[in-house]
Each structure stands twice: as structure tokens, then as C-alpha cells.
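Quick board copy: two proteins, each given as sequence then C-alpha cells.
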Amino acid sequence: MARYKGPRIRISRKFGQPIFGPSKYLERRAYPPGVHGPKKSRRKLSDYAVGLAEKQKLRYQYGLLERQFRRMFEVARKKRGVTGETLLQLLETRLDNVVFRVGFGSTRALARQIVNHGHIRVNGRKVSTASFIVKPGDVIEARPTAVSQQLVNRSLESAAIRQVPDWISFQKETYRAQVMRPPTMDDIQPIVNVQLIVEFYSR
């Protein structure tokens, strides 16, 4: 299944949640897209359908393909600790997500593109793999080139109202961020019931 590149508001309306961030349009049309959207469905969803929906919401939020998401779940399942929480931590500490969190990319899609095009360094070395997992102590910064810094500065201006999470230390003047600790559930504040995702994959 290819990465979704269609209208983001359509996905948010489908699930009735701001998957890609706050949207006034979603507030005005808080029902599924399509001609039958405003009509209330009387059909009760099965447990499988509910779990699938939660998984899809999280996958769309972070912009992952199904195979990528499943692989990340398997990595989380093999680690010690609570699988659902570990999965969310892995998703949050992907390099493209960290780039998005600090404002180098106004959206996760743009953040992924910035990483893939080689505009980001981790611990002084260029990293162009969006799925790269950062760890506490890692330093993430824009490359010291005019093109890279102009690109991230443009995103920083449009993302000025977004708050950088507490688990990341960020210095806007030097285009430099550092991971201070692993993110907690309170930091992440997931929009899904991650336990339902764990149960979905455990069937």
C-alpha cells in the first residue's frame, strides 16, 4: 500500500479526529466525507474494525506505510516493557518526527523530505534516513549551509506557535536540538488507544 498523499482533512473526517493537527474545517464538518457522511450509522463496529481503525489513525498520523508500521510494532514487541508505550516511543523518536517536533518541518511530510534530502545532521554527521531512531544525548541540527538553514528557518516561522516537547532541548538561534530523555506517555498524549492496536496485532 502506497503512502497516502491525498487530502489530509478527508482522513481526519473519516476518523472524526484531527489526525494531522487542529483543523477548523473539521470543526465545521464533524462527520465522515461523502454523500452519506452526515447520516448517523446504526451499524456497530466489531472489535476487529475498532482495532484496525486505531492502527490506521496512528499510521496516518506518523505517515508510515503498513509494512513500516508492522516492522516497528515487531521491534516494540521484542523490547522489554509495555509494548504499546514502547511503540509510541519508537514513533516519536524517529528522526523525521523529531525534526517535525522542533519545527524544522511544518508537517511530518515536509520533515521527512528535509531529512531525505540531506539537510539534517545527527551528532555532526549527515543522516538522510527518516526512520533513524534518535537516543538521549543525540544532537540534531540543520546542516551549516545557506540552503538548509533557509529551508528550516522558513518552517520555523510557520511553526512558531507549536511548543517544543519537554524531552527535547532546542536552540532556535543555532538550529540545534538535543534529545534529553525518552518521551513519556504524558509527553506524547496519543490520539489513539494504543492497547487496541496491540490486541489487533496479537490476533
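And the next:
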Amino acid sequence: MTTIPTILEDAFAASLTDTDSMSTLSPPQVEWVQTIAQQAASQKGVFTVLVTSLGKKILSPEQDVRLHQDQIPGGYSGRTLDTKFVTPFIRENFSRLAMSESGWLTRSLEQPHPYTLGYEGRIKNKTVKNAFLYILNDIEENNADARIYLIALFSQVSLLHSTNLIFDTTTLYSGVTIAKIIEALQQHFFTRYPVSGASRLPVLAIYAIYKCLLSTPRYEGKQLAPLKSHTTSDIRSGSVADVEILNLDSTFFEAVEVKHN
């Protein structure tokens, strides 16, 4: 039987190995999802209400989820679903983003008016407000897929905020786990090679990881500095560390110094 808990759990599980949901969204849709994900910690109510709305739409496709209170004609009780199922789910999987009870306790979201584009609730961050309303409008007016939105949202929030993922048991592509990757890297780093240069291997590994991370929201607009000679001192090369992430104006955003062993 399909229920809100199973919908949320299935979407969350799909998001852990998701590579397709963001690519199937249009640029405006991607921007809306990223806006909600990036601001989820400061806009917990919006995040919670959106998750509830998406879950309800998947459960009841005929329901206009913009009608979020049962006192609104044709509406449903979003707060009841949130309190019983959604906030507990968020607390378990994204603890830093959980409301104490319900997203509908937020004054800007509890008003008895539909979440249409003209909704007058005073969500402080206008960019977040617009993204929230545009997503709901897209679902109801353009028949956008609520499940794709939910998976994409969980995927982005996991990248930015999750503190509860058990990475060493999460199965990645082709059955490879992060634990197996770490084991392979350790064997590679600490094998006794007949030539010098083994201390360079961890630097190359971390550099490769950052190459992947550049596609995530945290590193949007950032770039990796080319690797310097491993035998050149930082003072002579002008470097601050072995791996350097730069802003577009070439100022330093982040740096990693690697010491073998």
C-alpha cells in the first residue's frame, strides 16, 4: 500500500544513487530545486511544506496541493501529514533541517490561502518564496512530475546538509561501496613501490575527488588550480596547499594540504 512514509523513503533511497533527476529538469526547474536545497537550513518551514506537498501529490495526483488546508474549498490538511509523517522523516534523515513539529507553524506559511503565484505570505527570502511557488505551480499547471522533483530535492539536500548518511554501507554504482573505494585507495597509497613518488598518490586521489565535487552546488562557480610540481616549495610556487579550489577571480576558496602517512 502506498503511503506518505513509503513515498518519502523510496524517493530518499533513489536520491542516494541519483544521476538522472536533475538532468531531466529544465534550467529554471534546476534553479528552483537548488534554491530550496541551498536555503533549507534557514528556510526549514518552506523545505518541510514543499516535501509534504510533493509527497501528497504523488500519493493523490488528483489533489491540488496548493490548497494546503482543509478549510480551503477542495483542500487537504497538509499540517496533519507533516506532523505525523514528514517532520519525523526529516528529523531522521536531515536532522539539522527538521522543524520542532510542523512547517505549518511558520506564520508565513500557515495563512488560509492557496499557495498560488500570488500568495501573500511573507516568506522573508523572496528567491526562496518564488522557487517554492514556481515548483507548486509547475506541478499543478504544467503537469510536472512531483516524484522527479522530490528525488532531485533530496539529492541536492543530501549533498549540502545530510549528517546521517552511513557512507560506508551505501551502495554506489555497479555495487561499489565507498568502503571498498577507501580500501583500494589505502592499498594503493601504502604499497612499497620500487620507485619514489608514492607520497604524490593521495594528492592525486583528493584532486580527482574535487574534480567530481565541482559539479555540486557548494562548488558552483569554483575551479581547481592546476597541480604544481610535488618537489617545489609552496613559497616558490605561490601555492598555499597541495590542492587548491579557486573562485572565478582566482582568489582562494578552499585548500587541502596532504601529508603521506
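Board note added afterward: The radius of gyration is 22 Å.
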